[in-house]
Design brief:
coiled coil, cytoplasm, RMD1-3_a_helical_rpt, cytoskeleton, membrane
Length: 112
């Protein structure tokens, strides 16, 4: 169950954007697995899910590129990726960009 490439052929049409963004949230969650979660996934799956913060960031940036301003949450996840990667300046920049999106464009996705 490798996540890399899952969104390769998906187009960001309005009807699919929510699904794609949800999938990207899964990428971020998998990328942030701690040691114990990785071991548990390896025990449960023949091929456990793998993803990195860079994978998640790349896909969130692609979503933003294909439809700028679609989701405040996507921009906040971009900021979160940058923060986790240690790039506080970019994280701050993306947070500010997220706050510029009108509330009528707010789409929410959650990571458990």
């Amino acid at each position: 169950m490798v996540l890399r490439g899952e969104t390769h052929h998906m187009q960001m049409e309005t009807s699919h954007q929510t699904s794609v963004c949800s999938l990207m949230c899964v990428w971020l969650q998998v990328a942030m697995f701690d040691w114990l979660e990785k071991k548990a996934a390896a025990a449960l799956y023949q091929s456990p899910p793998t993803a990195t913060l860079n994978d998640a960031l790349e896909n969130f940036l692609k979503a933003e590129e294909l439809n700028p301003g679609f989701s405040r949450t996507v921009r906040l996840y971009i900021a979160k990726c940058h923060k986790e990667l240690g790039d506080i300046s970019e994280a701050t920049n993306w947070t500010k960009l997220a706050l510029k999106i009108p509330t009528t464009n707010v789409r929410t996705f959650s990571i458990q």
